[in-house]
Amino acid sequence: MTNVVIPLYEGVTPLDFTGPYQLLYALEGMNIKLAALGTNEIVADGITFGGLSDLDRIEACDVLLVPGGLGCIAALETPQFLAALQRLALGATYVTSVCTGSLILAAAGLLDKRRAACHWAFRELLATFGAIPDPGRIVRDGNRITGGGVVTGIDFALSLIADLRGEEAAQRAQLLVEYAPNPPFEAGTPETAPKPVLEAVNGRLSSAIAEAERRIAIVAERLRTVR
To answer: Domain containing 150 — which CATH number?
Structure first.
């Protein structure tokens, strides 16, 4: 049995964890727990996820998978949340994340001097916590596996399944969900997106990035004092 814990928080991006969850759930011998602090319900983009496990009551796991979302800033500002991740990471075979979940891992001190992926718009903020920003889609550094933005979670999950069960099992999972990406547009990265599209998305994210920079700087300073 492989025990997977996916910690959720208000403002998490659903696709960051539902994609990997779907693929992992298709495997035999998987025990996947969606967990949160102090509540059995989390609202994410208008969707309510209920029946959650109490994160503080989970003793151990084989895979720790932290999803991202704009709520990641509030999550990494919560010492109890970071402490739970630190505790679970101690005995985990794999410590992983999708999208801005890597910022949470970094704030918990779990990516210190390690290369890590993140959503492109927030990637450089990893350095604030001592991690090494890496533009890779899936980045491995020891037993740390981090995926880039949102839909990268599918690729990340297939890579993780290959580690857990072998490449054939990963390919079976890929076929089961008919994952054969062929997007109608080449606009999925800043490098390939048309300039007006990139400018529009940067404009939409600018205030969120500025706010994240401000709050992350405060958390990083506090953590430097504590550590």
So the answer is: 3.40.50.880
For 141-186, the pLDDT digits (tens) are 999 999 999 999 999 999 999 999 999 999 999 999 999 999 999 9
Residue 215: inside a domain, yes or no?
no
Active-site residue flag, 99: yes
| Per-residue pLDDT at 225 | 84
Residue 213 forms part of a structural domain: no
Can you give the residue range of the structural domain that contains 144? 2-182
Q: Which pLDDT value is given to residue 201?
A: 97
**Inter-residue contact 63 to 96 (CB < 8 Å):** yes
d(CA 51, CA 176): 26
* Number of structural domains in the chain: 1
Catalytic residue among 61, 72, 99, 118: 99
What residue type is assigned to position 200 of the chain? Answer: A
Determine how many CB atoms are found less than 10 A away from the CB of residue 151: 17
